[in-house]
Amino acid sequence: MEYEQLKERYNLLGEKAKASAQGKAIAAQIAKLESTAIGQIAPNFTITTPEGESISLYDIKGKVKLIDFWASWCGPCRAENPNVKKIYERYKSKGLEVIGVSLDIKVDAWCKAIEADGLPWLHMSDLKGWNSIVTDVYQIHGIPMLFVLDENNRIVGEGLRGEELEKCVQKVLAQ
């Protein structure tokens, strides 16, 4: 369930239900979802590039940043890569940075997919797949999943693809 829906339904619960184990679990889930809701500052993370260099999200500078959660084995992710690549090529010179965060567990498959799809941006992974700390912090339950950040790391879009993603990037760059 999306953050706003979950929060609305949780607020309909009585105090006894909120104090129950299930109520507390829902409250914890809302807190996690709230940390990556539109308008929030994106949580920082540090993971490794294919070359073994540790990089922090906040170290990457750009007027707009796309965090693209994907994996080499994910068909929909690979199908979306050409669109992200087109947007990157169109707006890189205007301050767009793309950060590919892979949910792969095998470095070879990850690197082959980067090369095969011709993805020229920064790539990161801890090679823990769905057990990555980043998937927990960002509440990633399906991929591809993209977050759009402004230059202050504020989340301005999430879950966008195709034309909607490009419109969001254009809007942030125009500010």
Protein described:
- It is a single chain.
- By secondary structure, the protein is of the alpha/beta class.
- 42% of the residues lie in helices and 19% in strands.
- It is built from seven helices and seven strands, in the order αααβββαβαβαββα.
- The radius of gyration is 17 Å and the shape is globular.
- The two termini are 31 Å apart.
- The mean pLDDT is 94.
Kindly list the characteristics that best describe this protein:
alpha/beta; 175 residues; globular
Write a compact overview of the structure shown:
The two termini are 31 Å apart. Helix 1 packs antiparallel against helix 3.
For the largest beta sheet, what order do the strands appear in spatially? 5-4-3-6-7
Mean pLDDT: 94
Structural class: alpha/beta
Tell me what portion of residues adopts beta-strand conformation: 15-25%
Q: State the end-to-end CA separation.
A: 31 Å
Helix count, per DSSP?
Answer: 7
What would you call the shape? globular
Listing every helix as H and every strand as E from the N terminus to the C terminus, the arrangement reads: HHHEEEHEHEHEEH
State the major sheet: 5 strands, mixed
Helix content: 40-55%
How many beta-strand runs?
7
Over the alpha carbons, how many angstroms does the gyration radius reach?
17 Å
Pick out the low-confidence regions: none
How do the helices and strands line up, and which of them pair or pack?
Layout: H1 3-11, H2 15-19, H3 21-34, E1 46-48, E2 54-56, E3 64-70, H4 75-91, E4 96-102, H5 107-117, E5 122-124, H6 133-137, E6 145-150, E7 155-158, H7 162-174
Parallel strand pairs: 3-4, 4-5
Antiparallel strand pairs: 1-2, 3-6, 6-7
Helix pairs in contact: 1-3, 4-7
